[in-house]
User: Which sequence fits this backbone?
RNA sequence: GCGGAUGUGGUGGAAUUGGCAGACACGCUAGAUUUAGGUUCUAGUGUCCCCGACGUGCAGGUUCAAGUCCUGUCAUCCGCACCA
């Protein structure tokens, strides 16, 4: 043997060569076919790389390397989503500038990624905290502001009473602050909002033209939560006032026996003087507002409420007087903040009516007794007790009642979404400054584009202030400025953007990362977009993925990007769990550090193992024994050198297997079936060992197929074998379909579906001959009358006998 | 409660269209090499009442044939939480 397999030496050697030769740089030759592969850029945390990171990175690295060998101009970039809370908290605790913390973390992450031999184009590295980068994040914000899609609104934030700081929802665990365990209350603050709801319909429609895995599409649609219904006006009795409700069941209008408004509904205050039980109302509202979200959901089972004394409403279709209640099961933030309650056909209304003894009137027949349970099935059932709707099916009744309401001018059809506008402010230091000033005369005024980037100033302390303002608020020199519009005194916005901002457009920047004039050139965007394949975690399906689709669609509508959708294809990887099947965490003591695996076994082994561990989209438990098995496989590939012959062709015995393997590996790599691709290569080398030899030509194909998975080792073997040039520049092997099938095949012979014997036949043998041969092979196992003879070519013979 | 998955040997997992269930790997058993351990190699390894039958969470069904299709059901995991 030439020498032992020594990954420590080999891996360093090739990583250096790839760097020096810039082997994986995407070219600006726009005449070549392109392939843009993208993985979610990491948040460079202080913990360093986790074994979960390499799973998606290796997967798309495999596809990227394969596509390069197939002649594509491949863009496979990497960068840092580096703004964010943990860095800021670390900076506060250790009194180190977040910039320095970030730089250190990035350095560590980069070394770790580098040690895994990824074919990233490091010339295009980006960092969201780089002013050259956030210049354009701010620029997009200005575009949104100028288009009327950014606005300020009073919004409750999560306020930790001990840390005196606003928390993100993710930091509130079971109603208390994640870090200190103190109570979290709501505090109302004026916040920047982005009108993503204006794009709800476009974000749903856009899903039709992309190739996302189904569960991602379903999650996005559910998150947007489109519902088709109607708004109906109810008159208040003896008043010139209407109360508008939203309902998806206008067909049940005759069954509306009461109304419910949310405790925050403005109508309540308006009729304060006429409400006879104002004290009860106040007490209830007080209680509702104090409940945290956590309590509200905890107590979700039991309905509460108070009737509004002294005022009532009139059901517009039958003129009946009905009471109005307030209850926190009606949310001010959805629909109109008021509902018509139809207890016979809605479970929540039914529960409420039962508790408070309100009438339940059946208007859709077909279920059980509505006094016992609500009947909510819309597919069956016909209208009753509903005058002109009687006898109609639900669907017909909906259409007819809407027509009626529109005619009378008391209602119309209406679409609602669960999606809320995006809260875009954070009272934090380590984020992009929002490029807006507030002028007493002109209101909120955007900076002009030429004043970007608006740099994050140096501050003394990163600690938010006592009143919940960002640390920037204490920087009076920076805050006090002049209005770009009138030149008068103005104050800068001191909130910063959320971490989602920088990641909402980063894939655009990779196409032209050093451009100082635009976020990227038109030519670069036109050539590279859309991203051909984007892989990321399911946890980003509803926030990051939706936010970035929103920004992208907005940029498309404004002629800045050439495609409606940013990502053509979206796939998702499963989590890597600890040996015990639980999520890896320090407290569970089951964390595996990728550095240790690289040191002990090598990067190629880690890559192979993570791809072999199981189906890519499912979670998988770590197994150190499994890692050893993959190292063993690579050793066996290495040692094939000992039994190599110098023929350049495939040997006769191995030809079919070679073509089958090329076909399988090529297909599997493109379909995220890395585990079976690797299994096929393992099976191939088992055959080489059984045969006691491998030809030079067979070995060449094998290491080419294996190269995307184990790039260092195969590149070394390529050089040792003198195949010429570099393996990463070699051509991807091709197969001949005709040669993937053996001329003689083994098929199973069954009687009544049970396999009795197997036999070898010529693959083109005619059905009658196969049957005859099968009967002969069965001999006296076959008894009774043959009823039917089935031959599935190349697969099976089944004789049905009685 | 709603939505999405998943359920196959001792373990991780294979099985395009329904067509030989358990590929590949781990582990285990026996043997060879080795002073010994490890490594490496060879053979074996679903279960049982072992010339035969039974086996893909459970119960039915369709079919010549079901892990795969249909109906019902159970368990586990993840996401969302009164969205009218």
Assistant:
């Amino acid at each position: 043997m030439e020498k032992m397999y020594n990954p420590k030496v080999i891996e360093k050697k090739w990583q250096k060569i790839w760097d020096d030769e810039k082997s994986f740089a995407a070219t600006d030759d726009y005449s070549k076919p392109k392939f843009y592969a993208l993985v979610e850029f990491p948040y460079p945390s202080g913990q360093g790389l986790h074994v979960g990171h390499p799973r998606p990175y290796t997967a798309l690295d495999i596809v990227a390397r394969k596509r390069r060998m197939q002649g594509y101009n491949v863009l496979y970039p990497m960068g840092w989503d580096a703004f964010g809370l943990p860095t800021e908290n670390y900076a506060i605790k250790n009194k180190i500038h977040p910039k320095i913390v970030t730089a250190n973390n990035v350095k560590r992450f980069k070394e770790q990624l580098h040690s895994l031999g990824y074919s990233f184009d490091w010339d295009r590295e980006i960092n969201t905290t780089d002013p050259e980068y956030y210049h354009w994040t701010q620029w997009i914000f200005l575009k949104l502001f100028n288009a009327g899609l950014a606005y300020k609104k009073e919004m409750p934030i999560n306020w930790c009473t001990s840390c005196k700081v606003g928390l993100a929802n993710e930091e509130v665990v079971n109603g208390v602050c994640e870090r200190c365990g103190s109570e979290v209350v709501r505090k109302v603050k004026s916040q920047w909002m982005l009108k993503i709801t204006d794009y709800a319909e476009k974000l749903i429609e856009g899903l039709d033209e992309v190739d996302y895995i189904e569960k991602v599409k379903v999650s996005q649609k559910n998150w947007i939560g489109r519902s088709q219904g109607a708004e109906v006006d109810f008159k208040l009795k003896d008043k010139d006032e209407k109360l508008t409700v939203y309902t998806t069941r206008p067909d049940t209008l005759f069954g509306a026996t009461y109304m419910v408004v949310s405790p925050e509904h403005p109508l309540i205050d308006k009729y304060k003087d006429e409400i006879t039980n104002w004290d009860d109302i106040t007490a209830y509202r007080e209680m509702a507002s104090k409940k945290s979200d956590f309590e509200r959901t905890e107590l979700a089972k039991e309905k509460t409420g108070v009737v509004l004394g002294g005022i009532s409403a009139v059901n517009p279709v039958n003129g009946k007087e009905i009471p109005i209640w307030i209850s926190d099961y009606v949310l001010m933030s959805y629909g109109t903040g008021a509902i018509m309650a139809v207890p016979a056909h809605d479970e929540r209304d039914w529960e409420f009516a039962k508790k408070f003894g309100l009438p339940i009137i059946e208007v859709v027949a077909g279920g059980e007794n509505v006094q016992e349970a609500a009947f909510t099935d819309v597919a069956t059932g016909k209208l009753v007790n509903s005058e002109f709707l009687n006898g109609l099916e639900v669907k017909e009744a909906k259409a007819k009642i809407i027509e009626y309401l529109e005619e009378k001018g008391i209602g119309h059809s209406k679409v609602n979404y669960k999606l809320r506008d995006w809260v875009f402010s954070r009272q934090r230091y380590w984020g992009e400054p929002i490029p807006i000033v507030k002028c007493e005369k002109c209101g909120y005024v955007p900076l002009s584009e030429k004043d970007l980037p608006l740099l994050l100033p140096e501050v003394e302390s990163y600690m938010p202030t006592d009143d919940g303002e960002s640390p920037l608020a204490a920087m009076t020199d920076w805050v006090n400025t002049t209005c770009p519009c009138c030149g008068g005194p103005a104050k800068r916005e001191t909130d910063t953007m959320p971490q989602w901002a920088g990641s909402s457009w980063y894939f655009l920047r990779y196409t032209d990362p050093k451009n100082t004039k635009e976020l990227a050139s038109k030519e670069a965007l036109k050539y590279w977009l859309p991203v051909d394949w984007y892989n990321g975690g399911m946890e980003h399906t509803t926030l990051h993925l939706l936010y970035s689709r929103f920004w992208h669609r907005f940029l498309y509508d404004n002629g800045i990007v050439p495609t409606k959708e940013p990502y053509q294809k979206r796939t998702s990887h499963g989590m890597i769990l600890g040996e015990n099947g639980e999520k890896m965490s320090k407290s569970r003591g089951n964390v595996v550090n990728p550095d240790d695996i690289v040191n002990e076994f090598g990067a190629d082994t880690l890559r192979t193992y993570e791809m072999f561990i199981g189906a890519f989209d499912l979670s998988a438990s770590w197994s150190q024994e499994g890692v050893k098995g993959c190292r063993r496989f690579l050793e066996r590939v290495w040692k094939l050198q000992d039994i190599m012959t110098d023929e350049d062709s495939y040997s006769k015995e191995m030809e079919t297997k070679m073509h089958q393997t090329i076909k399988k590996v090529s297909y599997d790599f493109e379909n995220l079936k890395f585990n079976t691709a690797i299994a096929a290569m393992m099976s191939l080398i088992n055959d080489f060992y059984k045969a006691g030899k491998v030809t030079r030509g067979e070995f060449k194909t094998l290491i080419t197929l294996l190269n995307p998975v184990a790039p260092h080792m195969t590149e070394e073997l390529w050089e040792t074998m003198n195949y010429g040039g570099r393996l990463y520049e070699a051509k991807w092997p091709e197969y001949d379909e005709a040669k993937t099938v053996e001329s003689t095949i083994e098929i199973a012979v069954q009687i009544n579906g049970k396999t009795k014997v197997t036999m070898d036949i010529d693959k083109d043998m005619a059905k009658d001959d196969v049957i005859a041969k099968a009967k002969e092979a069965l001999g006296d196992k076959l008894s009774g009358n043959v009823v039917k003879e089935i031959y599935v070519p190349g697969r099976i013979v089944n004789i049905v006998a009685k």
